[in-house]
Amino acid sequence: MNINRYIDHTLLKPTATTTDIQQLCAEAVEYNFFSVCVNSCHVQLATEFLSKSTTVNVCSVIGFPLGAMSSEAKIAELQQAKLDGADEFDMVINIGWLKSGKENAVEAEIKQLKDAAGNAVLKVIIETCYLSDEEITKASKLAINAGADFVKTSTGFGTGGATLEAIDLMRKAVNGKAKLKASGGIRDYKTAKEYIDAGVSRIGTSNGIAIVTGTSSQNNY
Fold it and tell me: What is the pLDDT of residues 5-16, one digit of tens each?
């Protein structure tokens, strides 16, 4: 299995420096990861660094990590990241809206962001650690109704990361209409392979090198 092409090589720490982002990009090229995943302020830098690479994409998180800003702010962030060269976007839903029963608002926001993304891939982070099984199913269905390309488990900044149980619920909810991304706490090849076997098409992790080389890492994301 060419597991490196499942990996979004990720650095989302608030302390990430220019040098850190450049190193992330260099590692992604060296190990042929699918993408680098960065905060939107770093998209232009990552795009410039990877301009000579035809295999590594640039993914920007949107509304990260809380998802609690206005829809207009999320749209503006996505539009700027797109202008800066991002190929994919990982947005965080408004979890409070979901828990308040404002399902139409959650779906409408995702649709607005998908419209702004256009042909670019939009992944929807539902932050499963805060949701009941019913809410995981509901959020996944709202995402596909809104045209999302992926449903994603976690930001890695919540109280927990991916679980196989959540992935199973998400897989059943999307029913082949969207792909799945697991993130948060995936640190080794064995665990990554378990998620891929469970139906995941992408893995968000800062432990990509450890996963592909069989070494150990203690990074949380």
Answer: 999 999 999 999
